[in-house]
Write a structure and sequence with these properties.
Layout lengths: L15 E5 L4 H12 L3 E6 L12 H4 L4 E4 L5 H7 L5 E4 L5 H6 L1 H21 L4 E5 L24 H20 L3 E6 L2 E2 L12 H10 L4 E4 L5 E2 L2 E2 H13 L7 E4 L5 E2 H12 L6 E4 L14 H7 L7 H13 L3 H9 L8
This protein binds nicotinamide-adenine-dinucleotide (NAD).
Length: 344
């Protein structure tokens, strides 16, 4: 199986792009896409959950980003980094499970941090801010597939703070005419996805446990569904929002359009790993868990030209290959050190 290729996009060559949260999971794939497409990239990150190692892009795209340590709540530092005409991708955030144990800090980074990025970008006369929001703003689907008009009813402080951030982004356009576009990715997976601590996501946790022979742990009955999107598709949608014309002030879903339950996902991982008998354990549900998500991304297709291209089976096989490349003793150490309830 050949590795999935980092996508490229026209219209980015020579642009100066600032990626907040660029050292994180999605930000590090977006950074690679931008570099490969000829952009100059500055990553602005405080490494709260990201890692410098995620930005070791040379081998893959032949170029490295500039990395600036900074906190998105520090407007003065942002203004010093941003330049007139820059394209700003705002991804820095603290995650959904973090919001359960630390709601004030989560709100501070996700909501006030977004406001600070927007104000700094406007002050620096940046060209456009692409604000990366989340499908968590919707809460559990009332009808599927979910268009951007689906009611927003977040279950968690994370979802609420992401919704506040995207409202600020739209307000900066309506109130000041400052160019903003909001993208709402659905659950993403792929290279550099988190399995550790409160950032750990279901799929990389399943895969790490499966390749080391540990039972897969499902929170609740496993009938909750997700629209799993490969991170290369997510990064493409985010980058398209920077180059598309006539989309200022708008909001776009970015999902695969395929619904999969956590039980089905566990089956798929067992199949891809080749261990059909691996036990599956059900434990109590996670507080605030969303029960159903499925994206309708047809607006993103019409206005941005977004077409997801990585089928789940292919993306998961790639993820499994990535985890199998970790020496077994190290993978075993990581799997045994995994906190099962990673929101406490
Ligand atoms: N991963 C998903 O499935 C998913 C789904 C929907 C939306 N999103 C959104 O995509 C974006 C990126 O998510 P991710 O999964 O890559 O998360 P991540 O945790 O891997 O990345 C977030 C990055 O932000 C940085 N950061 C955190 N606090 C900061 C601060 N105060 N100042 C500067 N940098 C800070 C972290 O160090 C990290 O590098 C987020 O905005 C998230 O809401 C993610």
């Amino acid at each position: 199986m050949t590795e999935l290729q980092i996508p490229t996009l026209d219209g980015l060559a020579g642009r100066r792009c600032v990626v907040t949260g660029g050292a994180g999971f999605i930000g590090s794939s977006l950074t690679r896409l931008l570099l490969k497409s000829g952009a100059e990239v500055v990553v602005f990150d405080n490494l709260a959950t990201g890692a410098i190692a995620n930005l070791d892009c040379g081998g893959e795209v032949g170029r490295e980003p500039e990395v600036v340590w900074g906190d998105v709540r520090d407007g003065e530092r942002l203004v010093r980094v941003l330049r007139e005409g820059d394209t700003v991708f705002h991804l820095a955030c603290l995650g959904v499970r973090h919001s359960i144990h630390s709601p004030f800090e989560n709100e501070d980074v996700n909501a006030r941090g977004t406001m600070t990025v927007l104000a700094a970008a406007r002050q620096a006369k940046a060209g456009r801010v692409v604000h990366v929001s989340s499908s968590e703003v919707y809460g559990t689907a009332r009808s599927v597939p979910m268009t951007e008009d689906h009611p927003t009813d977040p279950h968690t402080i994370y979802g609420s703070s992401k919704l506040a951030g995207e409202c600020y982004a739209r307000s900066f356009y309506r109130c000041y005419g400052f160019q903003t576009v909001v993208v709402r990715p659905f659950n993403s997976y792929g290279p550099r996805s988190h399995f550790e601590g409160d950032s750990g996501e279901v799929l990389p946790r399943f895969v790490l446990r499966a390749v080391t022979g540990h039972p897969l742990v499902i929170f609740g009955d496993g009938e909750q569904t997700r629209d799993l999107t490969h991170v290369y598709d997510t990064a493409t949608a985010i980058a398209l929002a920077a180059v598309a014309k006539g989309v200022e002030g708008r909001t776009f879903n970015a999902g695969s359009g395929r619904e999969i339950s956590i039980n089905e996902l566990a089956e798929l991982v067992r199949r891809v790993v080749g261990n059909a008998d691996l036990p599956i354990e059900h434990v109590e549900p996670r507080p605030g868990d969303v029960l159903r998500l499925l994206a309708d991304s047809s607006e993103a297709e019409r206005a941005l030209g977004f077409r997801p291209s990585v089928p789940a089976e292919r993306g998961i096989a790639d993820l499994v290959a990535g985890f199998r490349a970790i020496p077994l003793a190290r993978a075993e150490q990581l799997a045994s050190g995994m906190r099962v309830k990673n929101w406490e």
